[in-house]
């Protein structure tokens, strides 16, 4: 990072740092144990792969819809109570996972994990926009949050394995503890800092869920962007479980080492290159970054489709290219939503971005069907074609309309009771 970035980071309000550090520790402890949940379900209940997959993904659609509603609710009721509720649900869910002994309790706990995350994510992103008014600083905060989430996701499994925590159910309590500390951090941030007290008191009295739906329905540019980004997540997610299915069915040599190396390449690419890429592309507008990322993502799909099964270095190269696209696209999507959202509907707009998870959750099912009926290369040629569809959707947006926003200073705001 250059000196100006460090100055901007140093100027963030304390509550923003609670969000940033909470994102890091929450995601890190989450991934210390979550990747091994499939092992627990298999060893405890002897479930098959399809049953485990169904349990792990069943709540995705409901969580996406809930995230949208909660984002809109945070515009009307304020961010504080929504964030505290989401954090408490996450903590309770992982306590349940630590002590669950029956399959229904496991399913309930995993559903609550999805619900807690969908409640937490939209108002957390929106609160950064509420507190950081300078656009460049706000976008740096969103970029830095994505970076810390990836560092946590990359380090979590490594720390878990090194500490001998893998596949031990009781260690879900560590994740519950991290969310308890995050809850305490939010209580301090909202009650103990001036920026937190101001953020807690600001609410939009004119907001309603029906009104928000009407606004979003008339924002044709935003609707097309949501569709395009759902497809982008769908394409990217084929590097996850679908690629593992392809390599497993095709009996790729040294499969375990290959998959482990691909995970490592993905994590290192994001952690090491996100900010150098941001520096390199700082003169490029948001759409330019999106188009660049899409082009790189398309190249990665072609590489996956054509790579010889026994070329280990080729799989590493293809993973690096797709990870490069991720490092450009995913943080830019958050910046894109922030720029499109009016201040009084920022929570609603970030809530609508919860629908991105539909693309992610549909990827294993569709990818598995295509691999079973046709082949792995056919799947990635299809994804390459979908990159073209996403590109055309973005090219369509300049011709579409957006609502004429009422100036933010004219919006009716009310004072909520002061935090106790």
From TrEMBL:
**Biological classification of the source:** Bacteria, Pseudomonadati, Pseudomonadota, Gammaproteobacteria, Cellvibrionales
What is this protein called in UniProt? MDR family MFS transporter
Membrane topology, record value: Multi-pass membrane protein
Gene3D superfamilies found in the cross-reference section: MFS general substrate transporter like domains (1.20.1250.20)
* SUPFAM superfamilies for the chain: MFS general substrate transporter (SSF103473)
What sections of the protein cross the membrane? 15-42, 54-72, 92-113, 144-165, 171-193, 220-239, 259-278, 290-306, 312-333, 354-374, 380-397
Keywords associated with the record: Cell membrane, Membrane, Transmembrane, Transmembrane helix, Transport
Where in the numbering of this chain does the Major facilitator superfamily (MFS) profile domain appear?
15-402
Task: Look up and give the organism this protein is from.
Answer: Microbulbifer halophilus
Note the superkingdom of the native organism: Bacteria
